[in-house]
Amino acid sequence: QAYVTYSNIAALTHLAAKPAWEITGTLDDIKIWTHEEGDVLSLKVEMQVKIPSHLAFSLLSDFTFRQQWDKHFLTCEVLQAVNEDEKIYYVTSPPMTGHKPRDFVILVSRRQPCKPSEPYAVAVKSVTLTSMPPSPEYCRSEILCAGFQIYSDSNSSCTVCYFNQVTSGVMPYLAANLTGSSKSIEDTALECIKFLE
After folding, report:
1. Are 33 and 46 in contact (CB under 8 A)?
2. What does the entry list under GO cellular component (predicted)?
3. Which residue among 99, 111, 133, 160 is least crowded, i.e. fewest CB within 10 A of its CB?
4. What is the pLDDT of residues 76-135, one digit of tens each?
5. Which residues share a beta bridge with 37?
């Protein structure tokens, strides 16, 4: 268990530190970057938010708030609170045309910074839970590595970076967004900023 939670945070830190991110879109308070490696595509969305970093951390690390701003989250319930900083959630996503709705069992690990220069971290990855086997109604999907890093800019503002590493399996969902229109990603980011502020 300790290894899984450690590797969750470590994977996010490693993903964030990768070189050669390419910027693909920019709005006033949002920048979108991508990183490709083999059949793995990673996405980074950087948002400028006018609230203190500790508040953004508290709102973003509680995934039960997620469906208030992310339309990809239909339902989200806590299956197990491992400890104060680790929770396992069960998430369902709305169906895409011609596909079954997806579901996920995810571990969310959160960490406060050790030093002022370090970010708050909220890391997400799929885990297997025997009490939640895949069901025929849903297509069980996997999150390799996703999450947030939150950097304090001032007492009243912060930079929130959202990361998601996508395998070719999730590509059909994102392909529509990334080819020609990153609009859905931008919309979600705008909703996230609105929710936080």
Report:
1. yes
2. cytoplasm
3. 133
4. 999 999 999 999 999 998 887 777 889 999 999 999 998 888 999 999 999 999 999 999
5. 40
Strands 102-111 and 139-140: parallel
For the residues of the chain, what is the DSSP string, one character each? -HHHHHHHHHHHHHHHT-S--EEEEE-SSEEEEEEEETTEEEEEEEEEESS-HHHHHHHHH-GGGGGGT-TT-SEEEEEEEEETTEEEEEEEEPPPTTSPPEEEEEEEEEE--SSTTSPEEEEEEE---TTS---TTSEE---SEEEEEEEEEETTEEEEEEEEEE-TTTHHHHHHHHTT--HHHHHHHHHHHHHH-
**Tokens standing for residue 82:** 């491992």
Rounded to whole angstroms, the Cα distance separating 196 from 69 reads 9
Q: CA angle at residue 5 from 95 to 138, to 5 degrees?
A: 15
CA 32 distance to own-chain centroid = 14
Q: Terminal CA-to-CA distance of the chain, rounded, Å?
A: 35
Query: Residues 6 or more apart from 77 whose CB is under 8 A from it?
Result: 64, 89, 90
Rounded Cα distance, 90 and 75, in Å: 8
Predicted TM-score (pTM) of this structure: 0.90
